[in-house]
Amino acid sequence: MASTSPDSAAATAAAAPSPPAATAANTGDLPAIMKNDPARTGFDPKTKWWVNYFKILSGDMTAEGAFHYREQRYREHEERDCQRCEQFRDWTFAHSPTVRFMREKVADLNGRLDASNVVCRRCPARLTEDGQVHRQGGGFSPGHGILLCANEVRDRKHLEDTLSHEMVHAWDHLRWKVDWHGNLQHAACSEVQS
């Protein structure tokens, strides 16, 4: 049995291959988000919006650059998008048969869905290193309520569909006591139902 001196152990450790870089698969975190590099993407946030838009149309901007352009425009129009989303939300609460039905069914289970816990916010998308864009239209959280992504709402019908979908999750949570984080089958069943 050979003895290992501290110097040889350090040399062995230094020569050993380094562990793989952290990825979403081995850390459980979200994928790394790509940052904009104007030299690489063609999108310069300091340039006027119409110049960047023309770069998209003429092919002088990469798909990644177009993604960053879109996200910047969403940030600039956040207040307008949220106001529009809230108007659509209020209209659907008053006039949509599907939303009114789901609201009644949630109320039958002692739940409450209204403007205080159905909120409109900007939801940033994520661009990963492999070029995939991760977006969401809304979400349900048992402790908070329903989130509607104002920047992803195309029109009133789209908001109605998204809100109805999330209301089904709220009903499932109240009716079946869904374990959203501990039991993947619960979440999958709710997703299929909605």
UniProtKB/TrEMBL annotation:
Coiled coil: none
GO BP annotations listed: mitochondrial protein processing; mitochondrial proton-transporting ATP synthase complex assembly
Signal peptide: none
A UniProt-annotated Pfam family: Peptidase_M76
Subcellular locations according to the entry: Mitochondrion inner membrane
Broad EC category: hydrolase
InterPro entries: Peptidase_M76_ATP23
Low complexity compositional bias, start-end: 1-25
Parts of the chain that traverse the membrane: none
This protein's record includes keyword rRNA-binding: no
Topology of this chain in the membrane: Peripheral membrane protein
UniProtKB keywords: Hydrolase, Membrane, Metal-binding, Metalloprotease, Mitochondrion, Mitochondrion inner membrane, Protease
GO terms, molecular function: metal ion binding; metalloendopeptidase activity
EC number(s) from the headed UniProt entry: 3.4.24.-
Annotated family: Belongs to the peptidase M76 family.
Job description of the protein: Has a dual role in the assembly of mitochondrial ATPase. Acts as a protease that removes N-terminal residues of mitochondrial ATPase CF(0) subunit 6 at the intermembrane space side. Also involved in the correct assembly of the membrane-embedded ATPase CF(0) particle, probably mediating association of subunit 6 with the subunit 9 ring.
Protein name: Mitochondrial inner membrane protease ATP23
Organism encoding this protein: Pestalotiopsis fici (strain W106-1 / CGMCC3.15140)
Taxonomic path: Eukaryota, Fungi, Dikarya, Ascomycota, Pezizomycotina
